[in-house]
Design goal:
The protein is mainly alpha-helical and 178 residues long. Helices cover 66% and strands 0% of the residues.
């Protein structure tokens, strides 16, 4: 019977750790990564397209909403646009970490996006369009999280954190509906 090493926790694969140290060209992706990188990168690029469309939609609404009474709504649109940009940046960074290429191609943004662009001129129509887009994003992230499961904890954590902000956005838009 082999003696256990008290300095090494049970269940740690020392050879896998050594292999991770040797394959530096793969960056953060070790041999122990259990996700389907191609599928995860595709999901993340579609989410990236969705976030970029949301940035554009919120920015358009921010710049086109008018009237003194709409100042708080205008500020909310700008705040959401900035947060959607942060989501896009985080998704692009994760794609790079997975040794993929983030797809910022404007020619295909709308076809890859889960959400739609909106050019409404009425403030309540803008709010409704944003609420719909937030609900679409929430459901998209929920499905991505479910598909990834436990195979990629880092991506799963990222998507959960983004989804939580999208839920806050949906709540904000619902509160602004008259």
């Amino acid at each position: 019977m082999a003696e256990s090493n008290p300095t090494q926790p049970a269940g740690i694969d020392r050879e896998a750790i050594r292999a991770a140290a040797r394959n530096m060209e793969d960056g953060p992706v070790t041999a122990g990564y259990k996700g389907d990188r191609t599928a995860v990168i595709k999901m993340l690029n579609d989410a990236l397209a969705t976030e970029l469309v949301c940035v554009l939609r919120y920015k358009r609404h921010y710049y086109t909403v008018s009237g003194l009474q709409n100042g708080p709504i205008k500020a909310e649109f700008l705040e959401h646009a900035q947060q959607e940009q942060e989501h896009a940046d985080s998704l692009a960074e994760r794609i790079i970490q997975l040794n993929g290429q983030p797809d910022f191609n404007p020619a295909t943004l709308l076809e890859r996006s889960h959400a739609e662009y909106d050019a409404s001129e009425d403030v309540q129509a803008m709010i409704r369009a944003n609420l719909i887009a937030e609900r679409v994003a929430i459901e998209s992230y929920r499905q991505m999280i479910e598909q990834i499961g436990d195979t990629d904890p880092t991506t799963r954590h990222l998507l959960i954190s983004i989804m939580a902000v999208e839920e806050e956005h949906a709540d904000d838009m619902r509160d602004l509906l008259e």
